[in-house]
Structure formats: C-alpha cells, structure tokens
Amino acid sequence: MFNNTNTNNNNSDLDSVIDSLFEGFDDAVIYESGSYAVPGIYTVEINEIKLVQSAKEGAPWFFIVELRVLSSTNVDRPEGCTMSWSVNMTRKNTAFSNIKAFVRGILPDANLTEVNTALIKRLCAPEQEVAGTLANVEFYLIKTKAGNDFTKSRWSAYTAPETPSAPVPF
Fold this sequence. Notes:
Layout: H1 12-21, E1 40-53, E2 61-72, E3 82-88, H2 92-106, H3 117-124, E4 134-143, E5 149-157
Antiparallel strand pairs: 1-2, 1-4, 2-3, 4-5
C-alpha cells in the first residue's frame, strides 16, 4: 500500500503548491465518459441504465444506456467494445419519445400503459433488472433544423441471425 505521509520536510515549497493547486481534490467526483453511439446496425447487450447530470454547473440530466457490442456494421464500434446511448432530458417531449421507443424495443411485450414512470424507476434502480438483455439497434444520422448532425435510433427485441439449414439427405 502507498504511504502518503510526508517523510521529508525539504518539500515544504512543493507541498504548499500542491495544497493550493489541489484544494478540493479530496472531495472530487470521477466523471465517467464512454464511447458514444455512432451510425451502424448493432446487436447489443445492455450493461446499465442510469440517469446522470452533466459535470458542468447547471447542466442537464441525461438518460444513459451503457451497451456492449455483440455485432456491428461500424468498424469504429467493433464486437466487444462498449458504447453509450444518451438522451438529453432538456427537451422532454423528444426525450420521452426516444426513451419510450427504447423501452418498447427492448421489452416488446410491455404494452404502452406499462411503459411509465414506475417502469423507468425500476430500469434505473441499482438492481438493473434489464442488465444482460440483448437488443438490436440501428443508429443513423439526421440533420437538425440548424443543420447539425443528430443521431437517431431504432430499437427492437433481439432476434438471432438465421442459420442456414443443413441439406436433407435423399
């Protein structure tokens, strides 16, 4: 184990600089950042669903789904990598629509009345009841009114790829 006690008093100048520069360091939070979703067609495993507030002061909340890629058409997000799909909660109409489409995609047997706030609470809870769920998703770009790229998604329940059947002997 690292011994962080000061055994050399000749470093008092350095200690003063560090004390000044690192004021508040002991209480700092580590902000996680993952690879974001990019266009492609994927089979993914859901690792975690969470709500996170951006690190910037007064910044928005995000609904984030952490994914492990099982298959991919995008070389930048190959099989085995992880990526994050995030929904900015600032524009609630758009956010709610995207989140409902996601939930209906991964839980196709849930009727629309079951996709509600109580379900979102369960999905984001520490138990992570859908962790390990497989899904198919297509991420694609559209242009916003301002002309910027925006990544959209189409979620669906996992379907195994078709395997060719063995020839039938005569």
